[in-house]
Amino acid sequence: MGVGIPSATWRQLPAGVWVLGLVSMLMDISSEMIHSLLPIFMVSSLGASALAVGLIEGVAEATALIVRVFSGALSDYLGERKRLAVLGYAMGALSKPLFATAPGIGMILTARVLDRIGKGIRAAPRDALVADITPAHLRGAGFGLRQSLDTVGAFLGPLLAIALMLLWANDFRAVFWVAVVPGLMAVALLVVGLREPRGRFAPEVRVTPIRRESLRRLGKSYGWVVGVGAVFTLARFSEAFLVLRALEGGTPIAFAPLVLVAMSLFYALSAYPFGTLSDRMSRTKLLALGLVVLIAADLTLALSSHWLVVLGGAALWGIHMGMTQGLLAAMVADAAPADLRGTAYGLFNLATGIAMLVASTLAGLLWDRLGAPVTFCAGAFFCVIALVGLLWKGARQ
User: Fold this and answer.
1) DSSP letters of 160-225?
2) Which of 200, 251, 261, 264 has the highest CB neighbour count under 10 A?
C-alpha cells in the first residue's frame, strides 16, 4: 500500500470501513460515468458556456455540502447514521435517469442538485460512521482507505464511460442510463452489508445539536480546521474545468474523461498511504505539502493545453487530493466531541460548500473572460494564501 506503511494496518480496520468504502466506490462509478461526460455534454450538445458550467457545478456541489449540516446534526440527534446514509445513496441512484432524459440546461441543473442533495444527506453520517467504528489510533488509515476505495470508483467510472462512448458512437444519453446500475448496487450493499453500532453512540437525552451550547463545545481547534478547509476549496474549483482544458487541447470527446481517470488514479493510490502517514506526523505539515502539490498542478495546467501536460497536471491534482481530503476529515473527527461528529462534519461542509460555489463561479467567469491560464493561475494564488496561513499557524504552535 505504500513505502514504510505496515501491511498489517489495513487488516486491523473494522469490516464496516471496508463496506462503506465499497459502497462509495460503486456510487462513484455511477456518478463519474455521468460527471466525466457532463461538461462536454453541456458545452457540445446543449450549447452551455464555461460560466454556465461553473455555476451549475458550483450550485450543485454547494447544495450537497450545505445539506450535510442538517443530515449530520440529525444523525447526532437520532443517534443513528445508517438510515440517513441509505436515504442519501438512494436519492443519488434515482437521480441518474434525469440526466439521460434532460432536454436542456434546466433539467441538468435539477438533476445535479437532486444528486448532490443525496450526497449531502449521506456524506456527514457516513463520515461520522467511519469515525464511530474506527479506533482513534487508526482513524487516518480508516478515512484514507475509504477515500481510496471511493476514488477507485472515480477512475473506473470515466474508463467505463470512455469505453461505452467508443462502442456507442458518442451516445451520451445511453451511457447515462447505464450509470443507474452501479448506483442501485451501492444502495443494496449498504442495506445488507453494514451493521451500525447500537447504543454506543446513541445520546442519553436527545437535544438539538445546532444550538449555541453545542457549537461552543466544538471549540477553536475545530474552527481552525473549518477555516482551512474553506480556503482549500477556494483554491480547488470543480474538476469539470480539467475536462474543458483537455478539450481545448484538441482531445477527442470520447477520450476527454481520461483526464479524470488520471486524477482519480493518483488520488486512489495516494489517499491510503498519506492517510496512514497522517497518523504518524504533523497533520499541519502534511496539509502544507498538499498545497505545494496543488500549486504545481495549477501552474502545470496553466502552462499548456497539450494532452500530456493536462494529464500531468491532473495527476498532481489527484496526489493533492489524496494528501489532503482524508486528512481534513480525520482532523474534524479529532477536533469534535463524539456526540457532535455529524454536526461537525455538516458545519465543515457548509463552509466548504459556500467556498465551492464561489470558486467554481469565479473559475467559469475567468475562463470566459480571460482564458484557462488565468483561471488556473488564480487557483495557485489562493493556494499561496492558504499556505501562508498554515505556515503562520505552525510558527505560532
Assistant:
1) HHHHHHHHTTS-HHHHHHHTHHHHHHHHHHHHHH-----SSS--SS---SSSHHHHHHHHHHHHHH
2) 264
CB 186 within 8 A of CB 30: yes
Quote the CA–CA distance of 277 and 285 in Å, as a whole number.
11
For residue 94 the three cell numbers come to 434515482
CA gap 56, 360 in Å, rounded: 9
CA pair distance 127, 143, nearest whole angstrom:
8
- CA-based nearest residue to 172, from 228, 110, 254, 242: 254
> pTM for the complete prediction?
0.69
Contact 150, 94 (CB under 8 A): no
| CA 212-215-218 angle, 5° bins | 155
Q: Tell me which residue has cell 449498504.
A: 190
Tens of pLDDT along 192-249? 888 877 655 555 545 555 556 666 777 787 888 888 888 878 877 778 888 889 888 8
- Give, to the nearest 10 degrees, the angle between helix 105-133 and helix 82-101: 160
C-alpha cell read off for 351 = 463552509
